[in-house]
């Protein structure tokens, strides 16, 4: 194995902290060709589809990648913005906001955004942090609930990068923050703001991305963490258990996934005479295809077509101030003990001069 060369090492250099904010990834454009590239990488991850490769890859490169790219591209086209895919746009804004929030709290931390699939890749993000001198790296996935398919896979990508690194930075991983008070508080604020402007519906439906049911039986904590987030949010909002419904969306394939499923539940609610639902997706911190198209377009249509009268979609946390502050607090907690204090410029220059002098050099 050939190890990658490292940036020049300066004797007496200080420890520098980098933060890698990681999201899922998204196609580069809403076209079948771009979708094919994205889906091929995403769906060949053994943590995402846990079927033996020898059985799965022929299905993936056969049926799935012939039919799905065009269908998915058409869906992405309905949510695309002039700046690109919403998931990428929000992730970038979250990184900028987090960087500013940490700076305002007196930390010197280099923040980079990376995507588990596509670009900017985890490897590119880590290369950039190393080039900027990071000797310690906090990996913060934008997934509040831990799932092997998402959070676990981010760790895989980091480990793959370390395998080629000569000087491996000291890593810390944020595994989950499903019950973090700042995160739940930001969700509650989002709901309350929506209710102030649009009134309150009869039911608050909380829709999380699904995973195969067998992962729950195999010990993945995702399902329990989704339910705990929902309970904490309900308590914050002072709602009764009857006012809140938890569902799972985005089922992929024919296996049983976590239940109840979002769309059938909405049909049932309409059949039961519920006229207005408020729908939120607390497991997604950035609006994306799964919220803007699957929920705000498809699920809305289903509910209204089945007799529902009003469907209120409550947006994700995106770049809301309370959420950015929550992210900063989560990062701070996980960087405890690491030197992140920003030095005033003059002091930093003086320190460098001193070190250089000790080495007999002048700068
Ligand atoms: C929030 C956590 C997510 C989990 C858990 C998750 C699991 C999971 N997803 C698939 C298959 C697909 N997901 C797709 C899109 C997608 N998934 C998440 C998040 C989670 N997925 C997000 C944020 C997005 C949106 C990305 C965007 O660009 O906006 C897609 C692609 C779209 C499509 O063709 O439908 C697929 C496919 C599986 C199999 C899975 C299993 C554990
Ligand atoms: Fe997904
Ligand atoms: Fe979907």
Automatic annotation (TrEMBL):
Residue ranges annotated as coiled coil are none
Q: In which pathway does it act?
A: Porphyrin-containing compound metabolism; protoheme biosynthesis; protoheme from protoporphyrin-IX: step 1/1
Class of the enzyme per the UniProt entry, highest EC level: lyase
Residues binding Fe(2+), per UniProt = 209, 290
Q: Which domain of life is it from?
A: Bacteria
InterPro entries hit by this protein: Ferrochelatase, Ferrochelatase_AS, Ferrochelatase_C, Ferrochelatase_N
Reactions catalysed according to its record: Fe-coproporphyrin III + 2 H(+) = coproporphyrin III + Fe(2+); heme b + 2 H(+) = protoporphyrin IX + Fe(2+)
Give UniProt keywords alphabetically: Cytoplasm, Heme biosynthesis, Iron, Lyase, Metal-binding, Porphyrin biosynthesis
Spell out the Pfam families in the cross-references: Ferrochelatase
What SUPFAM superfamilies has UniProt attached to this entry?
A: Chelatase
Subcellular location per UniProt equals:
Cytoplasm
- Which EC number applies? 4.98.1.1
Main localization of the protein described in the UniProt heading: cytoplasm
Q: Does the keyword Cytoplasm apply?
A: yes
- Which protein family is named in the record? Belongs to the ferrochelatase family.
Job description of the protein: Catalyzes the ferrous insertion into protoporphyrin IX.
- The identity of this protein, by name, is Ferrochelatase
- Record organism: Rubrivivax gelatinosus
- Gene assigned in the entry: hemH
